[in-house]
């Protein structure tokens, strides 16, 4: 694939107070990123230049107002310069309304570019929910911003660490509310989204595992009825559509089965049921160095009219501005974004 045939990915810089600009610089110092896509950072040029200083990199920058004007070659980072933040406004590790607003505006611009088909997909750096809300934007996360700005009602969050993939029936709600949201139509739709996503990744006949809600899937209704009354009918309807779905399968075994290759994706019923096993495989803390030696994993929103992949970690204020952030999750998010987007070039 020639360089001009590669998908353009809009990569948002994230909250300026966090590690987003740093990991963007580090990720785009790798030739692989330019072999699979044309990466365009959406953010502020001054923030990216400060990140390069922090990383002790002599990389050049190219400020553009149109994605087609990018250079897209290793050694020069193309930036869609929003002109929001000045260097004197930058406060690493700090929650501020201005930085929260900036992070939100970067996301909105990336969505706009994708909806206008000026880019082929988007990849998001980490934002800080407190800063964003302080800046006047009351969303619980990226997923909800994308759903609102694309007018999407039927969507789901997918997490992936290489071949370990999960998708959620519900995410940012209370556990009590999450149980109430386990209804057959919603479970069926998420199974369908999972099947569609894995096929887009090149797996022609995906096998979808569907997680139970209650311990041992309710143990013949002794520990709850949702598994038999809501989840099982969704699985049966998915099978009737030709989807290779299996479940409900108890949560204490289904992830080991996927890790061993039995499933290509697991449908989980709520936030932590999917997040905990995925982050256990993708995040590795090193107590000797008091750092995260590995921060892998990707967050993808399914059901949108545009592509959105993201890092699966936060702004990491504890190490922001110090030049020691790990770009691994962003690199993997760009890989996933490029894989989905290549069908839209």
Please, what is the average pLDDT?
94
Largest pleated sheet: 12 strands, mixed
* CATH class term of the largest domain: Alpha Beta
Q: Assign a percent range to the helix content.
A: 25-40%
What is the first-to-last residue Cα distance?
Answer: 11 Å
Pairing-aware structural class of the strands and helices?
A: alpha/beta
- Which descriptor suits the 3D outline? globular
Beta-strand percentage? Answer: 15-25%
CATH architecture grouping of the largest domain: 3-Layer(aba) Sandwich
- Tally of individual helices: 12
Number of domains: 2
Detail the poorly predicted runs: none
Strand order of the largest sheet: 3-4-2-1-5-14-13-6-7-10-8-9
| Rg from Cα | 20 Å
The CATH superfamily of the largest domain bears the name: Isopropylmalate Dehydrogenase
* Secondary-structure element pattern, one letter each: EHHEHEEHEHHEEHHEHEHEHEEEEH
Q: Tell me how many strands there are.
A: 14
């Amino acid at each position: 694939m020639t360089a001009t045939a590669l998908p353009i990915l809009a990569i948002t810089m994230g909250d300026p107070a966090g590690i987003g600009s740093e990991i963007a610089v580090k990720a785009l110092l790798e030739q692989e990123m330019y072999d699979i896509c044309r990466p365009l950072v959406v953010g502020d040029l001054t923030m990216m230049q400060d990140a390069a200083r922090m990383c002790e990199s002599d990389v050049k920058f190219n400020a553009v107002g149109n994605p087609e004007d990018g250079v897209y070659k290793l050694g020069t980072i193309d930036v869609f310069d929003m002109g929001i933040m000045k260097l004197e406004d930058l406060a690493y590790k700090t929650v501020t309304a201005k930085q929260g607003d900036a992070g939100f505006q970067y996301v909105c611009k990336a969505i706009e570019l994708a909806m206008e088909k000026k880019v082929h997909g988007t990849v998001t750096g980490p934002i800080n929910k407190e800063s964003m809300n302080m800046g006047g934007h009351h969303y619980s996360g990226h997923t909800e911003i994308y759903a609102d700005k694309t007018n999407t009602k039927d969507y789901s969050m997918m997490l992936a660490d290489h071949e370990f993939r999960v998708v959620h029936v519900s995410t940012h709600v209370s556990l009590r509310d999450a149980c109430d949201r386990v209804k057959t139509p919603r479970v069926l739709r998420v199974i369908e989204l999972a099947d569609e996503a894995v096929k887009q990744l090149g797996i022609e006949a995906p096998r979808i595992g569907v997680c139970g809600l209650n311990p041992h899937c309710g143990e013949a209704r002794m520990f709850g009825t949702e598994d038999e009354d809501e989840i099982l009918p969704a699985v049966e309807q998915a099978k009737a559509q030709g989807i290779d779905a299996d479940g409900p399968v108890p949560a204490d075994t289904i992830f080991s089965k996927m890790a061993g290759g039995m499933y290509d994706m697991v449908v989980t019923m709520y936030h932590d049921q999917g997040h905990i096993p995925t982050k256990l495989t993708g995040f590795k803390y090193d107590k000797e160095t008091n750092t995260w030696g590995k921060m892998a994993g990707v967050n993808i929103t399914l059901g949108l009219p545009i592509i959105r992949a993201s890092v699966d970690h936060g702004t990491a204020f504890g190490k922001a501005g110090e030049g020691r952030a790990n770009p691994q999750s962003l690199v993997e998010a760009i890989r996933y974004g490029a894989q989905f987007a290549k069908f839209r070039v």
